[in-house]
Amino acid sequence: MRGQPRTVNLHFPQYRMNLTVGEHSVRHIRRIVRSLLEDWGLAHLTDTLELAVSELVTNVVRHVPDRRCSLVVLRQAAGVRVEVADGWFQLPCVPDRSSPEADGGRGLLLLDALVGKWGVEPAPGGGKTVWFECVVA
User: Fold this and answer.
1) DSSP readout, 3-59?
2) At a CB cut-off of 8 Å and minimum separation 6, what does 25 contact?
3) Which DSSP letter does residue 115 get?
4) Do 114 and 127 contact (CB within 8 A), yes or no?
5) pLDDT, tens only, 97-115
6) DSSP character for 103?
7) Going from the N-terminus, what domains does the chain have, and what CATH number goes with each?
8) pLDDT per residue over 13-42, tens digit each?
9) pTM for the complete prediction?
């Protein structure tokens, strides 16, 4: 895990959504992210953010029993912050290394390679928020 969470500046545009995700939700969420980035003049970040948010939402689909989560996409002065929160107590962990035959275990390694900062914050009443920030180059 790299970086530290940042305080949200409410002067920048943001998008919030509470949802129950399923197998096809990731595709729709990628479209929303792409549209936001185009509106914010940050289309050059689309590939990175789509892949990173796909990993976080896929983790909810695969690991959170009720599949409920909230998605927050925040425009920041230096880029974009994405947060995916859920009510499941189990915190994600980055495996030391994955077997080439394993079905999973690479998502957070991929996230770490893609973005400038990311982290996991336990929620006070249970659950967690997994977040990342992508900086404009």
Assistant:
1) S------TTS-EEEEEEE--TTHHHHHHHHHHHHHHHTT-GGGHHHHHHHHHHHHHH
2) 19, 57, 61
3) -
4) no
5) 655 655 556 788 889 999 9
6) S
7) 15-135 (3.30.565.10)
8) 999 999 999 989 999 999 999 999 999 999
9) 0.85
